[in-house]
Automatic annotation (TrEMBL):
Coiled-coil residue spans: none
RCK C-terminal domain ranges (all copies): 136-219
Domain of life per record: Bacteria
One Pfam family it belongs to: TrkA_C
An annotated GO BP: potassium ion transport
PROSITE patterns tied to this protein: RCK_C, RCK_N
Alphabetized Gene3D superfamilies for the sequence: NAD(P)-binding Rossmann-like Domain, Regulator of K+ conductance, C-terminal domain
GO MF annotation terms: monoatomic cation transmembrane transporter activity
Name of the protein described by the UniProt record: Ktr system potassium uptake protein A
Lineage: Bacteria, Bacillati, Bacillota, Clostridia, Eubacteriales
Domain RCK N-terminal: from-to ranges: 3-119
Record organism: Clostridium tepidiprofundi DSM 19306
Length: 219
């Protein structure tokens, strides 16, 4: 993975977590907030931290914001500031701007003004937790769109010793197995004659409707 320059704007819990994780993964991270205290708190755990108002074009230009590959805007409460900052970042020419939205209307405006990606962390995490509660065998659940998801689950005991052709997962459940995890190793795009072993973790892609049906089978 190539090292990229990231700027994270808005240091609430989400912004801090994004900034620190990007830094731990070996990237250059500038953390930016209008609050001096937030800046102080994160200073030791990212590359640079700076106090600035993200809705002030001159401040953004002075920081050299244009040189960053990716900007993550995580200003929650102040929707106007979130929209202004996103607009300025795109106007100044940051290639990839990802903004956290609070609600559907906020998301719509962000997309209109050119946000490359709009995220809803609370909504996504809520869905994951709910799926994990409904079926404790669901380990991960990622919504790819309003129609499709990827689910990672422990293979049911009844699948052991059978291969993917015999299980007919595509025919019966409409899902495609994209990977099998076994003993900390991942077999990406497993062959159809791959036999499932007890304890295997299956990563599958499918429509949300089909994956929901499957969840009841693997409960
Ligand atoms: P959490 O991630 O904890 O749920 P949140 O999404 O509710 O937080 P807020 O607390 O609303 O986020 O704001 C995140 C940060 O954004 C705050 O630290 C705030 O100081 C900062 N912020 C707000 N407006 C601006 C601005 N114009 N420029 C820079 N930072 C700002």
């Amino acid at each position: 993975m190539s090292k990229k320059q990231y700027v994270v704007i808005g240091l609430g819990r989400f912004g801090v977590s994004v900034a620190q994780t990007l830094f731990e993964l070996g990237n250059d991270v500038l953390a930016l907030d209008s609050s001096e205290e937030k800046v102080q708190n994160i200073a030791d755990t990212v590359t640079h931290a700076v106090q600035a108002d993200a809705t002030d074009e001159n401040s953004l230009r002075a920081i050299g914001i244009r040189n960053f590959d990716v900007a993550v805007v995580s200003i929650g409460e102040d929707i106007q500031a979130s929209i202004m900052a996103t607009l300025l970042l795109k106007e100044i020419g940051v290639k990839h701007v990802i903004t956290k939205a609070n609600n559907a209307m906020h998301a719509k405006v962000l997309r209109k003004i050119g946000a490359d990606k709009v995220i809803f962390p609370e909504k996504d995490m809520g869905a994951r937790v709910a799926h994990n509660l409904v079926s404790s065998n669901i380990l991960e659940y990622i919504e790819l769109s309003s129609d499709y998801s990827i689910a990672e689950f422990v293979s049911p005991a009844s699948w052991s010793g059978k291969n993917l052709i015999e299980l007919q997962l595509r025919g019966k459940y409409g899902i495609n197995v994209v990977a099998i995890k076994r003993n900390n190793e991942i077999d990406v795009s497993p062959s159809a004659d791959e036999e499932i072993e007890s304890g295997d973790i299956i990563v599958a892609i499918g429509s949300i409707e089909d994956l929901n049906k499957l969840e009841h089978v693997i409960e």
